[in-house]
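FIELD: query
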Amino acid sequence: MAELGTGTQALLAGGDDGVDAHAVAERICRACKTGLDVDGAVISMLTATVSRETLWATDPTAELLEELQFTLNEGACMQAATGGRPVLVADLHHSSDTQRWPIFAAALAEQTDVRALFAFPLQWGTVNVGVLDLYRKTPGGLSTAQGRDAISASETGALMLLGLGTDPEHTDADGESGGSWLDHAPSSRAEIHQATGIVLTQLGVSAPQALARMRGYAFVEQRLLIDVARDVVSRRLQFTEQMR
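FIELD: result
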């Protein structure tokens, strides 16, 4: 097994010329999967809006982890994002921690073979730009060294992403300054933003309330939030006060 403790150096290898947030996330996730004895990794980015973006996932299971947590608005990732501290669950089938997010834990057990989950906020000081999620298919916690390396990776990732967010030399595909990427609606969540605007108009509520209504509908119908949003945008689904 490769050591991540050579750690953070591996993440920074090759410099950051020309990289974007997705490339940074891919570098971090790949390094963690290789060096921390985990089966997968995913990084999601917080935004200044009601949405969030999955920057990069090592595999479909990791991507589903983020989608379920965003849809249900609970889980280790959400807890790490709001609490600003790592959330470490060595065995999802035998842990009191999952009582904090029972719906997510049940969905995870039903739809995946994930047994251990570790969420680390991408935080530097008081600034939190996202979350790094790691998972294993077998139960077992991170060793002291692995935990230390995961924190180092998350801190390095936060610094690299913050650097992209404030460096005027980084530009997006439209030629705009990269300094505003934290405020942009991410492309992978654009339909959710659009649907939120449609629902808030239909119901006359705030954006957070509109998003909550879509989440509630997705949960009741056992669907992903993104699929509900697409139905709203395509006008196949319309929210009314009578809907529960």
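FIELD: remark
The longest helix spans residues 144-166.
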